[in-house]
Design goal:
By secondary structure, the protein is α+β, with helices and mostly antiparallel strands. 39% of the residues lie in helices and 19% in strands. Bound molecules: phenylalanine.
Length: 361
């Protein structure tokens, strides 16, 4: 005769009755409750858990008799057994929680309040943001206001209104990230903050004194001193009777505040289409004080910014009276100044967000 699932597995000669199993369940339930409630340590509870709920535990053992029970009672008994199991589980977990709570409470009485606390890691701003804020503060103290403009520009603001003609090398595809648009070559990522000069002059009449901190983009190969995304701080002053002497005095005052009272500056002739005359300002090398070192390439001077008197052709674009007004403008490369200030020799470190680097500032 072959065996089927319905056949009794345990003691075929002496089958268990539903009644007997039910009283076993009640007995286990009462016994378990009594023991769990009188347990006085987590270890003891762990033992009880094993004894009742383990794979070879008492409750599991009762489950083995289920197949012997006549079908009509089996369902109800199975439910009773499951109730027992979850009941004991809950009892043990509750008891464990209570034990842990009272353990923590009595430990609380013994907390050593003279122990030092955990150190709190305070966040701070990025070195580029710090230097930007420092430069901004200096120019605000000199009477400048802060202006901003969009990163996505038109060729008109970035080039044309700044007197950069169509065939100028700065418009080269190699330098400018153009944006695909209906009119090819008309939308781009600004290559400098100078377009904001135009936007400010279109909107406001002189007197104007603004600085423009911002992100700029150029299609450059990335290395220790070049990045495709970097930061500039533009300056513009327009009024009656502004002269090159004002430009020199303002930027020399900036250098003294930025690099120390003993620092000195020099201006070299340069060229920008939107300023005339144009110049570059150098600061006496802050590392060797002019004696010559690796950082200033033995010249004793550090290049810090481009500047000049606003080209009257630019005033034509914004419909300013070029007979009445003059102005000066400048553009500072933020990365370069920050590298000099903190002695950082690789620009890429600013963008990698390595906390070991950033925490040093
Ligand atoms: N826009 C110039 C650059 O990106 C810098 C500059 C600004 C020069 C203003 C003169 C006046 O190099």
């Amino acid at each position: 005769m072959s065996k089927t699932n319905k056949e009794p597995k345990n003691n075929p000669e002496n089958p268990v009755s539903a009644k007997k199993l039910l009283s076993t369940i009640e007995k286990i339930s009462a016994e378990a409750a009594k023991q769990v409630n009188s347990a006085s340590s987590p270890a003891e509870l762990e033992e009880l858990k094993n004894r009742y709920l383990g794979r070879k535990g008492e409750i599991q053992a009762v489950f083995k008799f289920l197949p012997d029970i006549p079908l009509e009672d089996r369902k109800q008994l199975g439910q009773e057994l499951n109730k027992l199991k979850t009941g004991v589980e809950m009892l043990v977990n509750d008891a464990l929680k209570k034990l842990n709570q009272s353990a923590r409470k009595s430990a609380g009485d013994k907390i050593d309040i003279t122990l030092p606390g955990y150190p709190v890691n305070r966040a701070h701003s990025h070195p580029l943001s710090q230097v930007s804020a420092e430069i901004t503060k200096i120019f605000v103290s000199l009477g400048f206001q802060i202006a901003t403009g969009p990163d996505i520009e038109t060729a008109y603001y970035n080039f044309e209104a700044l007197n950069i003609p169509e065939d100028h090398p700065a418009r080269d595809l190699q330098d400018t990230f153009y944006i695909k648009s209906q009119k090819p070559g008309s939308m781009l990522l600004r290559t400098h903050t100078s377009p904001v000069q135009i936007r400010v002059m279109e909107k406001f009449q002189p007197p104007i004194r603004v600085i423009v901190p911002g992100r700029v983009y150029r299609n450059e190969a990335i290395d220790a001193t070049h990045s495709a995304v970097f930061h500039q701080l533009e300056g513009l002053a327009v009024d009656e009777n502004i002269t090159f002497a004002d430009l020199k005095a303002t930027l020399a005052a900036f250098a003294k505040k930025m690099f120390g009272n003993e620092s000195s500056v020099r201006f070299r002739p340069s060229y920008f289409p939107f300023t005339e005359p144009s110049a570059e300002m150098d600061v006496r090398c802050i590392f060797c004080t002019g004696k010559g070192c690796g950082i200033c390439k033995n010249s004793g001077w550090l290049e810090t910014l481009g500047c000049g008197m606003v080209n009257p052709k630019v005033f034509d674009y914004v419909k300013y009276d070029k007979e009445k007004y003059t102005g000066f403008a400048f553009g500072i490369g933020l990365e370069r100044i920050t590298m000099l200030k903190f002695g950082v020799d690789d620009m890429r470190l600013f963008y990698e967000n390595d906390l070991r680097f950033l925490r040093q500032f």
